[in-house]
Design brief:
With about 170 residues, this protein is α/β, with parallel strands linked by helices. The protein is globular. The protein has a five-stranded parallel β-sheet. It has helices spanning about 20-30, 40-45, 50-55, 60-75, 90-100, 110-115, 130-145, 160-170, and strands spanning about 10-15, 35, 80, 100-105, 150-155. The two termini are about 10 Å apart. The structure holds shikimate-3-phosphate. Shikimate-3-phosphate binds near residues 85, 123 and 125. The site of shikimate-3-phosphate has 10 residues, from loops. It catalyses: shikimate + ATP = 3-phosphoshikimate + ADP + H(+).
């Protein structure tokens, strides 16, 4: 595959359940680039998982760590970077990605997201909440900003990961 964004990282954005991590891993493999996941990097740096970061340090500390981790990931060799769903909502993070990387929004419908995340652990925003309601609210808040990504790719319910990679490579 000819590298579609030579010298620049490719950053995947979108809501929880859009497929950023699983599709990102395969995209990186196809392009022969390293893959990194900002949630995972934050967990490594904090020495605890995301639910406990939210519980012990609070969401504000998580967002701050997320901003710093993504700034660091954007330096150095071009990668495929999967971000947490809220990363793009931070103006500084968004500006850093817009400056240095190619952003790809994995756009999924409410029912697709819901089927992928409801009842699964590890996502404090959904913890003890009605997943449908939370996702609906996040779609309303975030999709207008996700739309500013360089590229938008539909993450449909039936699309497997390789199909998603093909869609991304066609779109960029
Ligand atoms: C969040 C999404 C999560 C994680 C954290 C907050 C969000 O990542 O960063 O739980 O604000 O949408 P995924 O999008 O990978 O689930």
């Amino acid at each position: 595959v000819v590298d579609p964004a030579p010298g620049r990282s490719i950053v995947l954005i979108g809501l929880m359940g859009a497929g950023k991590t699983s599709v990102g891993k395969r995209l990186a493999a196809r392009l022969g680039r390293p893959f990194v996941d900002s949630d995972h990097e934050i967990e490594e740096a904090a020495g605890q998982d995301i639910p406990s970061i939210f519980a012990t340090l609070g969401e504000g500390a998580f967002r701050d760590g997320e901003r710093r981790v993504i700034a660091r990931l954007l330096t150095g060799a071009p990668k495929v970077i999967a971000t947490g769903g809220g990363a793009w909502m931070n103006a500084q993070t968004r500006a850093a990605i817009e400056k240095d990387a190619l952003s790809v929004w994995l756009d999924a419908k409410l029912n697709t997201l819901h089927a992928r995340v409801a009842g699964k652990p590890g996502r404090p925003l959904l913890d003890g909440q009605d997943a449908n309601q939370v996702l609906e609210r996040l779609i309303a808040q975030r999709y207008p900003l996700y739309e500013q990504a360089d590229v938008r790719v539909l993450s449909t319910a039936g699309a497997n990961h390789e199909t998603m990679v093909d869609r991304i490579l066609r779109a960029i």
